[in-house]
Design brief:
The complex is a heterodimer of chains A (422) and B (643). Chain A is mainly alpha-helical. Chain A is 28% helix and 4% strand. In chain A, helix 2 crosses helix 7, helix 9 crosses helix 14 and helix 13 crosses helix 14. The longest helix of chain A has 13 residues. Helix content of chain B is 32%, strand content 10%. Chain B is built from 21 helices and 14 strands. A 6-stranded mixed sheet of chain B has the order 1-10-9-4-5-6. Chain B has a two-stranded antiparallel ribbon with strand order 2-3. In chain B, strands 7-8 form a two-stranded antiparallel sheet. Classes of the chains: A mainly alpha (422), B alpha+beta (643). Chains A and B meet through helix 4, helix 5 and helix 7 of A and helix 11, helix 12, helix 14 and helix 18 of B.
């Protein structure tokens, strides 16, 4: 796909969401134009991330920080360096940021389910990292509780970053001269270790706060002009008849828009139990669709046998089958596609899904039921959801300024056999 | 005074003289209680008030009015289990608390526990329920008599009787209550407390619910509603059994006591350990393990550098190693595949079995001398023992935890780990690093050498190895070329080059033609040829193990596996990364044949042309590599708790 160059962007003039990469929102529209920019046009500007975390934007509570991992400039900077460093994957191709793409909502707008090492399908949608500092359960199945521990899982997952072991990752970091002394400086003399690597990455992630959205300025800031009419009607539905706030609660002083719990919406059930049988309508190019037979799709897709039982895999409690974590709705307009499997492309699809009452099945959360919303009401809800986009530009511009692991400076994926160390 | 009369007089009469604190009145109540106690003794066929009888009790009941007596008064209707054949899992820490001795001096319960096994009963002296406090005192008295006849046992045990009625049971009352017995050994100490309020925390900590019964006018009737509980406490101050009225019998308590003593035979290694903090059960051998790790036995070089080794870390690591609760479903511990009595591998399985019966692809590696192994795992993917632990914990096929939180939450929630991490790691709690380092500390102590070979080669003892083994060593270093990869240094021998090689074993499994009619041994001594076509569909699914390639993705690394050390090799069958060779003779035969020739095979592996005698000599040499401390390591491990 050819890159479409916009007029030479000036710092502050561009929307950092229009970053490099094929931004596929509304790809199916015939007048789709990518807003991708050349890498060279990407201009970064470092932000004071510590200050952001210490003074969260309007609408967010204080950032919880573990007692043994206080936020410091050094830890945040080190975590940021690790986050963008491709050398931390087995073959030197993948960093955390390749699935949690800053200009794509720290998620991936282009893929329903993430792609890991050597093209392997990870099976779930890469969740956005905005405001991840507040999450008490991590991953779609809530299996991890702290960012410090969470950071290790993609690193050593054979289908994500693919490192064969924790020790392998530590040895690699220790072998990279540009990390020399960084850990020691950030952690009082302690070098790269199981604890310090997790702590550094967690420190960076805790600073990814995006709020002070139009909704926040209206609801918490008392600015009547901040929110449009449609979005206000949407909020009334959100907190009222549509019942969204039952799981995406809004507090008196702040709002996380998540109950941090796991629920069964039917999305997982449908994927496992009721696959589509007829031809499927697939976007081939902007405005061009094709009806593709299931067997043709199957020949180019991953096997349909992948059965993702969600929380059940963690608890082995049959009642937890297909339960997934409630994501925050903050910045949701930036983080398409939606649901744990990325199966819904747009916010309109999500609102339609819940208006229909999800996918009825015996385990469906009783709060999900047909809502009977009119087209206008659904549009109002979408307008409200779009008003939850916070002040994210400084984080994206800061990400653009982050050092990228210099893959060219070493042999990619080659392991020194003599010592066994990378 | 007869037993039946006493029973008739007291069993149903509440205490009336209220309030009352004088010793004289207390004494009256004490005598009342004593009379009740006699019901039991009389019912057991004894008559003497001084409890001097040792006559065996009989199950007859004293009078028609007497209540049905608890089993503790009579002969056990079944045989008490033989001590040592069962286990008493720790129920929880035995709480501390301040009480008063019979001299009115404050003393803490843990002080009284000292380093003894403790039987602790809660009573009040004027209890009129024959199956309540009098039963407790009677059973402790029977224990007291038995212990008296066994001074060795008696010296390790302390009986404690604590009143939960301090307002009436003053120290003086308790002195009178106990004066008939308290001439030890065994020690039988009678206790009370300053006040109800002072005692409340102790009662609550032991879960003793005590309620004063009020009469119709709402006044204290003098009777106390409570549930009979007697606690058996081990030397680590953990509750190991709680007896209720139906199971409080001297024979059962005695069997339990002896079981704990058997479990705890050897003395603790670290007498300086804190008395009040929960501790990993001090292993008898920790000091020895620590010493051998700090000064490895003859034939081994100094231990490679690593986090500091301390007794606390070793104890904690051992506890983790044997703790099945660390697996996803509580069924697997490290020790289930690395079995101490089987060379820290599993001798009965070519390849290990993981979570919920999943067949793993590789043989469980022996852990002897693992401190010197680097990289780790047959494919060398791990580089540190501390991080290796998490590899196992998080492997869905092995310990099965899906997240770090799943494993750490368990450790943090288990009361028997309370304070252990903090004590071992300067206040740091259970985390990825501390857990990994504790496990590494234990693993690093599993050093083993001073084998016949070491004594012969490095110790100058020409008689340490026999002729065959000496001839085997010549072949090992010479014609057979084994030492090319199983290195021998001037002053020590690791017997591994810590590198990875293609020996043909992995290639053969993947690429070699299957044996059409393999011979299997379904039961020892019976070998049958199997027609593969006949069992098609029932055999395990073939799998491909590419070894080092899976780590590096370098085609040159296909089917390369790490050279294991040959130390203790005679104790760690079966052999090769997939456990496909059942004994040392088969291994020697494999190399003598020149492996399975194919383009990637290590060029050092080539037909050796050894005759049967030479092969036998090589095997004899390999047998001479067994260290002299395997029993120590296994005994230490056997004393560990299963979790």
């Amino acid at each position: 796909m050819a890159l479409v160059f916009l007029s030479a962007p000036a710092l502050g003039d561009i929307d950092p969401a229009d970053g490099p990469g094929d931004y596929r929102d509304r790809y199916e529209d015939a007048d789709y134009r990518t807003r991708s920019q050349a890498l060279a046009a990407r201009v970064g500007q470092p932000a004071d991330l510590l200050a952001i975390a210490q003074h969260p934007p309007l609408g967010l509570p204080e950032v919880p920080v573990p007692a043994d991992n206080p936020l410091t400039h050094e830890r945040i900077a080190l975590g940021r360096k690790l986050f963008y460093d491709r050398r931390l994957s087995l073959n030197g191709t993948q960093s955390c940021a390749m699935c949690h793409i800053p200009e794509q909502g720290f998620a991936n707008n282009e893929l329903a389910t993430a792609v890991g090492l050597e093209g392997q399908d990870v099976g779930r949608n890469a969740p956005s990292l905005y405001n991840v500092a507040y999450q008490t359960r991590l991953f779609h199945d809530g299996r991890e509780r702290s960012l410090e521990h969470q950071a290790w899982q993609p690193l050593i997952n054979p289908i994500e970053m693919g490192n064969p072991s924790i020790g392998w990752v530590l040895a690699r970091i220790k072998s990279l001269p540009d990390y020399a002394r960084l850990f020691e400086q950030a952690f009082g003399g302690r070098g790269p270790s199981m604890d310090t690597v997790g702590q550094a990455i967690a420190s960076y992630e805790r600073t990814l706060l995006a709020a002070d959205s139009p909704f926040d300025r209206w609801y918490y800031g008392g600015d009547p002009a901040a929110l449009g009419e449609s979005a206000r009607r949407g909020f009334t539905l959100f907190a009222g008849r549509a019942g969204c706030s039952a799981c995406h609660p809004v507090g008196v002083r702040n709002a996380l828009f998540t109950d941090q719990d796991l629920h069964h919406t039917g999305v997982g059930y449908a994927r496992s139990m009721g696959g589509p049988s007829g031809p499927r309508r697939v976007v081939l190019a902007p405005g061009v669709f094709g009806e593709i037979a299931p067997e043709v799709l199957a020949s180019v897709s991953r096997p349909a046998t992948a059965n993702d039982l969600g929380r059940y895999r963690v608890t082995r409690d049959p009642a937890d089958r297909w339960s997934f974590k409630t994501p925050s709705l903050r910045n949701v307009a930036l983080t398409a596609p939606y649901m744990h499997d990325g199966s819904l492309r747009r916010l309109e699809d999500v609102v339609d899904f819940y208006d229909r009452g999800g996918i009825p099945n015996p385990l469906l959360d009783p709060r999900i039921r047909p809502l009977g919303l009119t087209a206008q009401e659904k549009a109002d809800l979408v307008a409200f959801l779009e008003s939850l986009t916070g002040d994210y530009r400084r984080l994206v511009l800061d990400a653009f300024a982050a050092p990228l692991g210099d893959v060219g400076s070493e042999r990619r994926g080659r392991i020194s056999r003599a010592s066994g160390a990378p | 005074m007869t037993a039946s009369a006493s029973a008739g007089g007291y069993v149903t009469s509440p205490r009336r003289d209220r309030p009352c604190t004088s010793p004289a009145q207390g004494l009256r109540r004490f005598l009342a209680c004593l009379a009740i106690l006699l019901v039991g003794v009389a019912g057991a066929g004894a008559t003497s008030i001084g409890f001097e009888t040792t006559a065996p009790p009989s199950p007859q009941v004293a009078t028609a009015q007497s209540p049905i007596l608890a089993p503790g008064y009579s002969t056990l209707r079944f045989s008490a289990p033989e001590p040592g054949i069962y286990r008493l899992p720790p129920i929880g820490p035995a709480p501390d608390g301040e009480v008063l001795d019979t001299g009115g001096r404050p003393v803490r319960l843990h002080q009284l526990f000292e380093d003894r096994f403790v039987v602790l009963s809660f009573i009040y002296s004027t209890c009129d329920d024959v199956n309540g406090c009098p039963l407790a005192t009677y059973v402790l008295y029977r224990l007291f008599r038995t212990l008296k006849a066994d001074p060795t046992l008696a010296s390790q045990v302390r009986l404690l009787t604590l009143s939960f009625d301090p307002s009436n049971d003053t120290p003086e009352v308790m002195r009178l209550y106990g004066q008939g017995f308290a001439k030890g050994p065994p020690d039988w100490t009678f206790l009370t407390a300053e006040s109800d309020a002072a005692l409340a925390p102790v009662l609550s900590a032991y879960g003793q619910s005590v309620n004063r019964i009020l009469d119709a006018q709402g006044r204290d009737s003098g009777r106390i509603a409570h549930v009979l509980r007697v606690y058996l406490i081990d030397r680590a101050k953990r509750i190991r059994n709680i007896y209720s009225v139906s199971f409080l019998h001297p024979d059962l308590v005695l069997a339990d006591l002896r079981t704990l003593i058997l479990e705890d035979r050897a003395p603790p290694a670290d007498p300086a350990g804190s008395a009040s903090q929960a501790q990993a059960r001090p292993s008898p051998r920790t000091a020895e393990l620590l010493a051998q790790a700090l000064h490895p036995p003859l034939g081994l070089p100094p231990l490679p550098a690593g986090p500091a080794l301390t007794a606390e870390r070793i104890d904690l690591g051992r506890k983790l190693f044997f703790d099945r609760r660390l697996s996803a479903n509580g069924s697997l511990s490290c020790a289930l595949c690395h079995i101490p009595a089987q060379g820290f591998t599993a001798r009965s399985m070519a390849r290990a079995v993981g979570m919920e019966g999943r067949s793993l692809r590789r043989n469980a590696s022996s852990l002897y001398n693992i401190a010197y192994a680097n990289p780790l795992f047959p494919d060398g993917r791990e580089l540190g023992l501390d991080t290796l632990t998490w590899q196992e914990l998080l492997d869905p096929e092995r310990m099965g935890n899906l997240s770090v939180a799943m494993a750490l939450d368990k450790v943090q929630a288990l009361p028997d780990y309370l304070g252990l991490f903090e004590a071992a790691f300067e206040g740091r709690s259970a985390g990825m690093e501390t857990l990994g380092q504790a496990m590494a500390a234990y693993l690093r102590t599993l050093v083993s050498a001073r084998s016949p070979f070491d004594r012969w080669r490095f110790g100058g003892d020409a008689t340490a190895m026999d002729e065959a083994a000496v001839r085997g060593l010549r072949l090992f270093e010479g014609k057979a070329g084994c030492r090319d990869c199983h290195l021998l240094a001037e002053d020590h021998a690791l017997l591994t080059d810590n590198a990875l090689h293609d020996t043909g074993i992995g290639w053969h499994r993947t690429m070699g033609a299957p044996t059409p009619r393999p011979v299997i041994e379904p039961v020892p001594g019976i070998r049958i040829e199997v027609d593969l076509a006949a069992v098609a569909g029932t055999e395990e699914r073939p799998f491909n193990d590419l070894g080092r390639y899976e780590v590096t993705q370098d085609p040159a690394d296909r089917w390369r596996f790490r050279t294991p050390s040959l130390r203790n090799v005679a104790a760690t069958a079966p052999f090769m990364h997939d456990g496909s060779l059942p004994d040392l003779a088969a291994v020697v035969e494999h190399y003598n044949r020149g492996g399975h020739p194919h383009p990637g095979q290590d060029p050092r592996i080539r037909p050796l042309g050894l005759n049967p005698d030479e092969q036998a000599d090589l095997v004899a040499f390999l047998h001479a590599l067994t260290g002299d401390n395997l029993d120590l390591i296994a005994a230490d491990a056997e004393a560990a708790e299963g979790g």
